[in-house]
């Protein structure tokens, strides 16, 4: 006879935290959100890869491109670049993140001296950048001849066919610096000379980078940024259980820091084979997370297969219709609680701490705090990140409101059949995801900082200054459906009603 669970499976909206004693030391600024990303022998060694905030971005076309990866690493988290693209394209995205030197920008707007104002305007419209390098061959690293900025020409006054050489600031009038100048020194040069852009050139006069006044300031503001030993941003990437023998080497070659097998259902032989292949070829050097699972059994299977972290969640994603189409899944809160127990038992038995990630279904910021309190080391978010400027999707205006597009990996639009692959020859034959809009929410940095301030405040209410302390001290209660109603504003007529569930 089939097995029946005694309790219904529950989701975050059915739980609340009960505050604990908070002392005068419990202030949000004193809270550390540092958390391990990969397994380690807790108490005996340092975790080889930690994050400064407990947030990773979903392995999705509508979420994790290189721009978002840079923005999130700057806040202290990690993006997993989507795998539902060609191996070359995914590796190129990883490479762009790894070669991005915080503060040093490889010029993406370049023209040769033969170009005209018409070319300048067309390029500016395409890239959105107003500083254009004029190099001998028109490439990002060609011999620097001059720079064109908006103040160098007047549209409708300067003729469209005027050659750039007639209005650019030529090299002999430019302030430049050698390629290895430190960011600190670059900033001094920028200030001393009252310039906005400093080109860095090599001994032959080839352009290497630009340093912009505005970037230096933002670099200074990001105390949490997550950098590797070479001061490049940390980045992850999704892989599948089909083409790993080609995809993994390409991603490793591009400099990826951590991989994750992207699958809607991870309790499978395919996942253990994939991890096995990585261990055989790279030992423990290449880090790989696995999932998704929703119970203790699934966790133990992946931990024993050698996963560096385990991801939890089936059917809870905002764009996910797996539960409706296939009838599988589990309430996200129950899944996290069950897996967290299994993780703690596994740690007691083996001394190995395998971090776990709650993936999908975070609607309100406090759901993050609940997931952490229930034992998750970090959370993966799709909808949340899709709303920001840096996500790779279009910003559109609908009924007077700005929205961003957001679609599931199991939707027809993404056609990520590997994610739902069960072996055999058939490819995605029915949809498990939808195509949608989410309200536009501005720059990632502002959104993440607001969210985490809320997380830290609640942690203080629970008397916790770290995530492990929260997990130890948290007191959680299931709430009745009537008290959920009581928890929102009620019995008043709202002056300014927006659907709060869509605003993070
Ligand atoms: P959410 O943050 O609620 O938008 O959920 C994002 C998660 O949803 C992803 O990390 C992934 O696990 C899952 N997903 C992605 N695509 C689909 C689908 O098409 N069903 N589901």
From TrEMBL:
Gene3D superfamilies documented for this protein: Aldolase class I (3.20.20.70)
Catalytic activity: IMP + NAD(+) + H2O = XMP + NADH + H(+)
Cofactor(s), names only, from the UniProt record: K(+)
Any one Gene Ontology BP term: GTP biosynthetic process
Keywords: CBS domain, GMP biosynthesis, Metal-binding, NAD, Oxidoreductase, Potassium, Purine biosynthesis
InterPro entries: Aldolase_TIM (IPR013785), CBS_dom (IPR000644), CBS_dom_sf (IPR046342), IMP_DH (IPR005990), IMP_DH/GMP_Rdtase_CS (IPR015875), IMP_DH_GMPRt (IPR001093)
Residue stretches making up the CBS domain: 168-226
PROSITE patterns noted in UniProt: CBS, IMP_DH_GMP_RED
SMART domains: IMPDH
GO molecular function: IMP dehydrogenase activity; metal ion binding
Family to which the UniProt record says this protein belongs: Belongs to the IMPDH/GMPR family.
Protein name (database record): Inosine 5-monophosphate dehydrogenase
Organism: Faecalibacterium gallinarum
């Amino acid at each position: 006879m089939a097995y029946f669970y005694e309790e219904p499976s529950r989701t975050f909206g059915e739980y609340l935290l009960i505050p604990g004693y908070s002392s005068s030391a419990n202030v949000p600024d004193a809270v550390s959100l540092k958390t391990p990303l990969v397994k380690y022998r807790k108490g005996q060694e340092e975790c080889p890869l930690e994050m400064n905030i407990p947030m990773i971005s979903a392995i999705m076309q509508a979420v994790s491109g290189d721009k978002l990866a840079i923005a999130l690493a700057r806040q202290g988290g990690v993006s997993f670049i989507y795998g539902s693209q060609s191996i070359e394209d995914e590796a190129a995205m990883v490479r762009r993140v790894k070669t991005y030197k915080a503060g040093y920008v490889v010029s993406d707007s370049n023209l040769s001296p033969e170009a005209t104002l018409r070319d300048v305007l067309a390029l500016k419209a395409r890239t959105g950048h107003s500083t254009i390098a004029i190099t001998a061959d028109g490439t990002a690293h060609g011999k620097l001849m001059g720079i064109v900025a908006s103040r160098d020409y007047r549209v409708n006054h300067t003729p469209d066919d005027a050659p750039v050489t007639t209005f650019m600031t030529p090299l002999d009038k430019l302030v430049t610096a050698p390629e290895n100048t430190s960011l600190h020194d670059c900033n001094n040069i920028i200030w001393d000379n009252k310039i906005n852009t400093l080109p860095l050139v090599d001994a032959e006069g080839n352009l290497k980078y630009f340093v912009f006044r505005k970037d230096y300031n933002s670099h200074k503001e990001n105390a949490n940024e997550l950098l590797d030993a070479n001061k490049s941003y940390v980045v992850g990437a999704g892989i599948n259980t089909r083409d790993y023998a080609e995809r993994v080497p390409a991603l490793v070659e591009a400099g990826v820091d951590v991989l994750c097998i992207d699958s809607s259902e991870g309790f499978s032989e395919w996942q253990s084979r994939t991890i096995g292949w990585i261990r055989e070829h790279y030992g423990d050097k290449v880090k790989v997370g696995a999932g998704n699972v929703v119970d203790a059994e699934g966790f133990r299977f992946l931990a024993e297969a050698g996963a560096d972290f385990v991801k939890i969640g089936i059917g809870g994603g905002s764009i996910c219709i797996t539960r409706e189409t296939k009838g599988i899944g589990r309430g996200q809160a129950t899944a996290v609680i069950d897996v967290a127990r299994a993780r703690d038992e596994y740690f007691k038995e083996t001394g190995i701490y395998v971090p776990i990630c709650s993936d999908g279904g975070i609607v309100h910021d406090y759901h993050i705090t609940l997931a952490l309190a229930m034992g998750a080391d970090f959370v993966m978010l799709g909808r949340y990140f899709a709303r920001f400027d840096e996500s790779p999707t279009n910003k559109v205006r609908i009924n007077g409101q700005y929205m961003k597009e957001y679609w599931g990996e199991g939707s027809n639009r993404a056609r990520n059949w590997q994610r739902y692959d069960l072996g055999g020859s058939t490819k995605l034959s029915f949809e498990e995801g939808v195509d949608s809009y989410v309200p536009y929410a501005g720059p990632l940095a502002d959104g993440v900082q607001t969210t985490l301030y809320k997380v830290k405040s609640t942690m203080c209410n629970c008397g916790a200054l770290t995530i492990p302390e929260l997990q130890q001290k948290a007191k959680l209660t299931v709430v009745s459906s009537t008290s959920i109603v009581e928890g929102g504003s009620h019995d008043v007529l709202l002056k300014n009603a927006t659907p709060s569930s869509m605003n993070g």
